[in-house]
């Protein structure tokens, strides 16, 4: 098993107050937001080979050693990372909930500050055809209205955007792209200090799906939290 992640990096120029984890957006620079550059370092560890024994205790010890031998590869293309401006309460609704394939879960920010957001780094450029965003099943569908979806290419250019509408509980908002649009980053959030359709600053998402043909590149996976980001664990 190896787990691939990245160093914490600066987000696009959305503005971050690290003390309060507050994000703000410059009203005059909507089309000038920048995505962080690729990390500069690559770190790899040696392979470990094990002879699996039948004894369960021995196996658990081996697995513990294997976890210690995790590889942190800071140049891991094609590995999705998702994060959001801040967390609600005890972080029971993390950004990864929006990509877990479970309609009963959802991600949410704290709702304490203007311009909160959810964001995904696809790890590399994918040629996408559409983005689907669903609302939570149990409450507050009007909070979808007013959220702004922004799509970025590998050069950090905002190449497509849309303002979400109220699709009802469990409903799906679909943003259709020109087939084969090259996409690296996806952002959903509030801008210019404006509230959502519910009159507050929550960014709540049931599911976010990004399709290249019939393949959802944000497909459900196993995510772990490393350095404040939710990163996909890859089993080899």
Q: Could you give the topology of this structure?
A:
Blueprint: E1 2-3, E2 16-17, E3 22-23, H1 56-68, E4 81-84, E5 107-108, E6 117-134, E7 148-152, E8 158-163, E9 172-189, E10 204-205, E11 207-212, E12 215-216, E13 223-226, E14 229-234
Antiparallel strand pairs: 1-14, 2-3, 4-6, 4-14, 5-10, 6-9, 6-11, 7-8, 7-9, 11-12, 13-14
Give structural notes:
This protein has 236 residues and is mainly β. It has a domain at 81-222: Galactose-binding domain-like (Jelly Rolls, Sandwich). The protein contains one helix and 14 strands. The chain has one helix at residues 56-68, and strands at 2-3, 16-17, 22-23, 81-84, 107-108, 117-134, 148-152, 158-163, 172-189, 204-205, 207-212, 215-216, 223-226, 229-234. The strands form three sheets. Strands 1, 4, 6, 7, 8, 9, 11, 12, 13 and 14 form a ten-stranded antiparallel sheet that branches. A two-stranded antiparallel sheet has the order 2-3. Strands 5-10 form a two-stranded antiparallel ribbon. It is globular, with a radius of gyration of 19 Å. The termini are close together.
Q: What is the CATH class of the domain at 81-222?
A: Mainly Beta
Proportion of beta-strand residues: 25-35%
Compute the separation of the termini in Å.
5 Å
> Which structural class should the secondary elements be placed in?
mainly beta
How is the biggest beta sheet arranged? Answer: 10 strands, antiparallel
Output mean pLDDT: 75
Let me know the number of strands.
14
């Amino acid at each position: 098993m190896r787990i691939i992640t990245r160093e914490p990096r600066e987000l696009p120029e959305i503005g971050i107050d690290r003390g309060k984890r507050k994000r703000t957006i410059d009203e005059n620079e909507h089309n000038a937001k920048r995505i962080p550059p690729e990390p500069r370092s690559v770190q790899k560890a040696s392979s470990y080979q094990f002879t699996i024994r039948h004894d369960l205790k021995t196996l658990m010890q081996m697995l513990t050693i294997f976890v210690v031998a995790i590889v942190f590869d800071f140049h891991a293309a094609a590995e999705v990372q998702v994060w959001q401006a801040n967390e609600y309460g005890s972080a029971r609704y993390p950004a990864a909930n929006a990509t877990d394939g479970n309609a009963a879960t959802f991600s949410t920010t704290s709702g304490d500050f203007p311009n909160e957001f959810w964001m995904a780094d696809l790890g590399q450029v994918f040629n996408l055809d559409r983005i689907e965003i669903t609302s939570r099943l149990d409450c507050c569908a009007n909070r979808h209205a007013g959220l702004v979806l922004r799509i970025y290419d590998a050069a950090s250019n905002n190449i497509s955007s849309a303002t979400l509408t109220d699709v009802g509980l469990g409903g799906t908002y679909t943003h259709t792209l020109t087939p084969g649009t090259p996409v690296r980053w996806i952002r959903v959030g509030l801008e210019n200090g404006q509230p959502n359709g519910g009159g507050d600053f929550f960014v709540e998402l049931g599911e976010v799906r990004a399709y290249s043909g019939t393949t959802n590149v944000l497909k459900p996976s196993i995510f772990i939290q490393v350095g404040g980001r939710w990163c996909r664990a890859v089993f080899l």
